[in-house]
Amino acid sequence: MRGFKQWILNESDIFGFEKEKSHKKSDTKGESPIVPINTEIVMNAMMKVEINNVEPFSLFLDEIQWGREVGAVKMVISPLGSFKSIVRKLSTDLEGNKAWICKRILPYNDLLHVTQAFDENIAHEVLKEIEIVSKEETELAQKEYNGLEKLTTKLAAFCRRGDIIPEIFIYKGIKQIKKNENYLIYFECNGHGVETPNSGRLEQFIIDMSYDKKTGLIRSIGHDVQSKTRQHLWAPQPSEWDEYFLPKQSEKEIISCVGAALSTY
């Protein structure tokens, strides 16, 4: 028989509270990482790396750029929702203006599940994608594009996946604003997510997909539609993302980027 002294040293739950604290560790991608990402370390690590023999430079605290002409690559860290890296490549539109085209959106939560590490390893994973993007052929704008409806339909199906759609949302449908030029994918809230932090009411979330014949670019904007409490004003809010794509990009690449942006809401 154990003595009282030995028992008290080995017994951690003498008051019966510890069992209530036992929780299975979740492996859900959508949850925030336990250890916060130090974005300064991520940026500093990436600033040391050349891409295709091009040295990086930074004009803003949250972005790094390799090159200045068409084909240049830029990485921006976005804190909206949860931290992610957005990789863009420089192209031109039909009017001759330079346009930063979205090529990758990389949520850090997803990368943590790949690397099982933080900071420098996150930078390494993002740099691998930047290098791939830099070596790909630079797509150009397109005067005629009849694939927006098909793209939007596939995107809506992708966004309904359990690992993409935020738990707060319920998919409601697609609305055509103008054939081949503008479609809206819209979501409403389930019973637990109507009120916003500013005491407003979240009526809907909209993914606005459009194609501009003048520029030859596809644009994707994701934003809330809110009202004040006890009112129904249905006012569009500042965008969660606002990205440009090219018709010659693969549908898979565009859908993956928009889906990743939605998943970090």
The oligomeric status of these chains comes to single chain
How many domains?
2
Structural class: alpha+beta
Rg, nearest Å:
23 Å
Q: Which stretches are low in confidence, meaning pLDDT under 50 for 5 or more residues running?
A: 11-34
Main β-sheet, spatial strand arrangement = 1-2-3-4-5
Q: Give the number of DSSP strands.
A: 10
The residue-averaged pLDDT reads 82
- Distance from N terminus to C terminus (CA atoms, Å) equals 57 Å
Strand content: 25-35%
SS field, number of helical segments: 6
| H-E order | HHEEEEEHHHEEEEEH
Q: What share of the residues lie within helices?
A: 10-25%
Shape: globular
Described by strand count, sense and barrel closure, the largest sheet is: 5 strands, antiparallel
Summarize the structure in words.
The strands form 2 sheets. A 5-stranded antiparallel beta sheet has the order 1-2-3-4-5. It is 24% helix and 33% strand. It folds into 2 domains: 39-135, no CATH class; 148-263. The chain has 265 residues and is α+β, with helices and mostly antiparallel strands.
Compact overview of the structure:
This protein is of the alpha+beta class. It has helices at residues 4-10, 39-46, 108-115, 120-135, 148-159, 251-263, and strands at 56-60, 63-66, 73-78, 84-92, 98-107, 169-178, 182-189, 200-212, 217-228, 235-245. The termini are far apart.
